[in-house]
Predict the 3D structure of the following.
Amino acid sequence: MAPLAPRLARVQPSLPLVMSELALALKAVGRDVIDLAEGEPDFDTPANIVEAATAAMKRGEACTRIERAASSLK
């Protein structure tokens, strides 16, 4: 294997990775932590949210284009 360039020593870990590792460490010592560092919660979506989202999609309210978005969200 070829030697690595010295400049690689300056590469820092990504902030979301550092935050996730911190959350894991806090959980390991018994702290109640919700980890959102990587953009995904570490728990399932609550059933009432799933039901509301499903109902909204069935009503055709799932558009993400701003001109078609529900006026209550603008």
